């Protein structure tokens, strides 16, 4: 049986855009009757499969992880409130780090912080990021396993993703696990 959950609000807007629904009704309702807007998505009844929701979240996490944040080029030490604001949306620049650097393990902590700060669908306390050391360092790739609870209605869903950091480009590739 496929688990279905209530569609996230952002996904309702995305679907409306994809279906070219501008929110205009087919005709004005008759006085004294309820108007029906054809083709509109009712958020209260709409649902999405667990698999599709995981795909949506993976796509959006990829966008988040591959956006270089403001702090990558600006010292925000005197502005801690900006560090956690939408102005600093994204991930630190990874291009200038080397794979042999002692701070490579800190990338997992940074990944967890970015997810907790900028992805509100993930339950903050449930986010776990661990480095997968089975990946050969000669592949110029670092792999992290991300596990968290996805806050959805009517139930929380467990999600797991692989985050592969390509060392030569700094790009992070998100894959469902």
Automatic annotation (TrEMBL):
List, for all copies, the residue spans of the domain called IraD/Gp25-like. 53-154
Q: What SUPFAM superfamilies does this protein's entry cite?
A: gpW/gp25-like
Q: Which residues form a coiled coil?
A: none
Q: Which Pfam families match?
A: GPW_gp25 (PF04965)
Superkingdom: Bacteria
Q: What is this protein called?
A: IraD/Gp25-like domain-containing protein
Taxonomic source organism:
Methylobacterium cerastii
């Amino acid at each position: 049986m496929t688990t279905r959950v209530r569609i996230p609000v952002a996904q309702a807007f995305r679907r409306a855009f994809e279906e070219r629904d501008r929110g205009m009704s087919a005709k004005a309702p008759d006085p004294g009757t309820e108007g029906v807007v054809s083709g509109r998505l009712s958020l209260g009844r709409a649902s999405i499969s667990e698999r599709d929701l995981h795909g949506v979240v993976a796509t959006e996490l990829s966008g988040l992880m591959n956006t270089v944040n403001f702090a990558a080029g600006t010292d925000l030490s005197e502005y801690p409130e900006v560090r956690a604001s939408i102005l600093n949306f994204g991930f630190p620049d990874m291009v200038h780090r080397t794979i042999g650097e002692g701070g490579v393990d800190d990338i997992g902590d940074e990944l967890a912080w970015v997810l907790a700060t900028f992805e509100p669908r993930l339950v903050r306390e449930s986010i776990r990021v661990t480095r997968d050391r089975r990946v050969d360092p000669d592949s110029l790739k670092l792999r992290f396993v991300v596990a968290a609870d996805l806050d959805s209605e009517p139930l929380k869903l467990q999600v797991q993703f692989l985050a592969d950091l390509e060392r030569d480009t700094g790009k992070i590739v998100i894959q469902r696990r």
